[in-house]
Amino acid sequence: MRQYHYLNESADFILEDPELTSYLYFPIANENGVMASVTPSLHGDNKMGQNTYLLAPVSVEELHNSKASRNFWCIMEGKNPWSVVGNSSNQQANLYKEEKEKTYLRAGIMWQEVERISAVYGLKAKVLSIVPASGETVELMKVTIENIGVDSVTFTPIAAIPLYARSADNYRDHRHVTSLLHRIHTTDYGVIVNPTLTFDERGHKKNEVIYGVLGTARGANPPVSFYPTVEGFIGEGGSLEQPRAFYSKNLIPMAAGESVAGYEALGGLVFENVTLKGGEEASYTIAMGYGNTEEDFKKEAKKFLLSDKAFDDEVQYTKNYWNQKINIHYRTGNQEFDYFMYWVNFQPMLRRIYGCSFLPHHDYGKGGRGWRDLWQDCLALLMMNPSGVRGMLHDNFSGIRMDGTNATIIGTKQGEFIADRNNITRVWMDHGVWPLLTTNLYINHSGDIRFLLEEITYFKDMQAVRGEEKDTKYDEGLGKRVKTIQGEQYQGTILEHLLLQNLTAFYDVGEHNHIRLRGADWNDALDMAKERGESVAFTAAYALNLMTLAELLEKLEEHGVTSVLLAKEMQILLTEDITCFNDIERKKDILYTYCKQVKESVSGQKVEVFVTNLVRNLKNKSEWIKDHIRNEEWLTNAEGFHWFNGYYDNHGQRVEGDFAQGVRMILTSQVFTIMSGVATKEQVKDVIRAADHYLYEEKMGGYRLNTDFNEVKLDLGRMFGFAYGQKENGAVFCHMAIMYANALYQRGFIKEGYHVIDSLFRHCNDFSVSRIYPGIPEYIAENGRALYHYLTGSASWLLLTVLTEMFGIKGRYGDLYFEPKLLLEQFRQDGTAKVEFIFAEKSFEVTYQNSKRLEVSEYQVSKIILDGMVYESKDLRCIRRSDILKLSNNQMHLITVVLC
C-alpha cells in the first residue's frame, strides 16, 4: 500500500493518491481564531468558534458523505465539467478504475497542497490551502491550472464554496429556519453573507459577524459573475457534485451588486474564459473568511487577492512562522523517527488553538480545554517555549476550590474559570495530580523554588464539600472567588493550593481505604462508580505527589524558609496521629469537618507550620499509601502472572484479576504504581511480564489499555459499552501507553520503555496500517487504524519522555543535567545522537558522542565540552545554571557530551 515520504528537514511530506484513504484530514489555523480542517478533496470545515462557522461543521462521516467542499471547476465545451479537487460525479465514479486521475498531496506544518493530473483533459491543477500566520481571519486557496498537452485548451473557471455562516447548533436544529436569516449580496470580487440574527444557546441576537468568499484571477482580475445561492447553482435534481448550472440555460449567474435573501449561500465565483496553450498556466486566488464589518473582511482578503507577491510572501511567512516555533529537533540513527517527532512536537500547539474540539474526530464539546489539558499542555510549553509558562501556571492555580477540587469549565482568557450554570456536579479524582507534576517540572527547569510562595485566589461557585453539597448562599454576582468572613478575597500561596489538592485526596477514601473514584479519574469513561468506586491507580499517583511536595519543601528549607503560613482551617488535615491512616471513618470525618469549615467562606486566619514538621507529615502519608497498596492490591493469578489491581467498582468489588469472564488487567493500574515507586524493582519486572502477555498487541502498535472484560460493566463505566478494541475499551490508548514508557524509563527499565515508544512509532509511521499523516493519535483501534489525530495529550507526554528520559535532558532546580538512556541502535553510524532544545532561554545543540559504540548499560557521561571548552564540574553530568546564564542569548551553544 502507499506510504508517505518526507521531503526535507521541516518534515514536509508527499502522499500519492491520498483520496483513496478515508478519514484523512489536515489542520490549518492561526492564532487569531481561525480553525479549519481540510481533506485531500478539500472537504472539511472552517470556524472561529462554536457559534461562528463559515463552512458547515463536519464530523468524520461527513468527510466522505457530504458533497459540500471547497470546489473549483473547469467548464469545457463538449466535455463533462472537471473539478480540480476531484469532486464531480464522473470523477467519483472513476475513483477505483484505470481512468482515475493521478493525485499527490504535499503538506507541511499548517499548509496543504493537492496536485491532480488529468490525461483526459490535458490539465494539471494544484490547490494550495493555508491560513495566514500573520493573523488575518481568512483561509486562502491558490488554484494553479496548467495545460500539460500540446493543443490549446479553453475553459470557464468557477469556484463553488457553500457558505454555512452560523452556529454549529443549527446544523440539525433549525437548519432551514436559520437560512432564512441570510442576507446575501454580490460585490465586485465575491459573495458576502450577513445574517440578520443568530439562533443559538445565547438566544436570538443581532448578528455581528460577516462571512464571505472573494476571489481574483492572475493580475487581480475579478470574477465576471456569481452564483450566490446553493439552490441557484445546483438547480432542480442537481447536486454540488453535478450542478445543473453547467447544463441549464435557466440558471443564470448574477452580476456584481445584486442581492438575495433567505437561502443557503454559495461562494460561486465565475471567472473570465481562459485559453491555455501547451505549457501555459493560469492561477486563481480565493479568500474565504470573516469580518466584524464587510469593509474589514474585504480589506484583509484583498491583501492577498490583489497581489500574487503578497500571497506568495504570506505562504513563505506562514511556513517559516510555524517551523520556527518547533525548536526541538532530533538526529538519531532513525531519520524517520526524527521527522515523526517533528510533527509530535507541533501537536501541542494545535491543542492551544483548537482545544479538544473543532476537528472532525473531536466532535464532542464546544471548544476549549479541560482542567487536565491546562497542565499537560504546559509540559510541552516548558520544553519548547518556557518564557510565558510561569504566568500561565500561576493563573491556572486560581481554578482550585478550597475543598481541593477545581473548576471544570475553562474560559477563553488565561486564568479564567466559569461556574457551571447547569449545576452539573462532577468531581474527577485525578485532577489534583496534574498541577504539581507540571509545577515540579517548571521548578526543576527554572530553579524558581520561591514560585511556591506566590499567592493567588481560590475559585468559588455553588459546588461544595467535594461535590457532595451545594452552597445555597453563593451569589455569582459577587464574584467567583473565595471570600473571608469579612467579605475580602482570600489568597493563599501556590504551596497551599497544592497541599490542599493532595491532602484532601488523601482523606477522600472509600471502603478499601483508597481514594474514591467519584465522577471518573484520568479515564473519563470510568464514570459509573461514583458511590463505591475507588481508584487505586491514582491513589499511587497521590503518593508520588505527597513525596514530591516533601522534597520541594526540603529545597525551600535549603533556601532559608523554615516555616510557611497556611489557612487555619487546614490544621485538621495535618494531624500527626498516623493511627488515623488506617481508620476509614475517621479519615472521612476529618475531610468532612474541613470541607464544612470552608463551604461558604474562610476565616482568613493563617497558622505558622514548620517546614520540618510538614515534610515529615507528607512523607508519612506517602509511605503509608505505598505500603497499603503493596500489601492489599498485589495480585497473583492462576497462570502465575502478577500485577496490581487498580480499581474497585460501584459494588465495592475488586476489578482486576481472574474472573469467570476471563483475566482482567488495566494498564493504568500498572503505570502509576510503577511511576510512583509503589512497585518494587522485582514487582516492575513481574508487571512487565504480565503486560507483555495480556496487553501487548503487535498489530495495534503496542499495549492495550485493558483486557476484554466480556461484560457491559454498568457498575464501573461507559467504556465497557464500547466495542472491545475501540477507544477506552481495549484500544492502544497512546496517552497511557506513553506514560507507561515514561514510568519504565524513570525506573531504569530502558529497553522496555523504548520498546513501548518504538512500537507506537513504527505503527503510526506505517501509513498502510495507521492511515494517518505523521504524528501521534489518541488511540489505535482493533483494525490498526489510528484515530483522533492531532488533539491529544499523548503528544505532550511523548515530547516530554523522548527529551527528558530517552535523551536525558533534565532540569534539576535550575541546573542542566545530561542522563541519556539511548540504546546503541539509536545512535547514528558515526556514534552520535543530537538534540536541539531551549533551556534557561538559551538555545543548545547537544551531541552525545558514543565513539566506542557502547550499549546503554555500558556507558556513562565522562566529559562535557561547552562551546569548544571542557566544562569543569563536580558532577560530570551537570552544567550549573549560573554558568548557563552567562551565555549569549543570540547563538546556538554547542555541547558535546562524551560517553564512555
Q: Structural class given helices, strands, pairing?
A: alpha+beta
Number of strand elements: 51
Roughly how much helix do the residues carry, as a percent range?
25-40%
CATH topology of the largest domain: Beta-galactosidase, Chain A, domain 5
CATH superfamily of the largest domain: Glycoside hydrolase, family 65, N-terminal domain
List segments where confidence is low: pLDDT < 50 over at least 5 consecutive residues.
none
On the 0 to 100 scale, the average pLDDT is 96
Could you list some keywords that capture this structure?
globular, six-stranded antiparallel beta sheet, GH94_Enzymes, 21 helices, eleven-stranded antiparallel beta sheet, glycosyltransferase, 6-hairpin_glycosidase_sf, Beta-galactosidase, Chain A, domain 5, 4 domains, 900 residues, 25% strand, Glycosyltransferase, alpha+beta
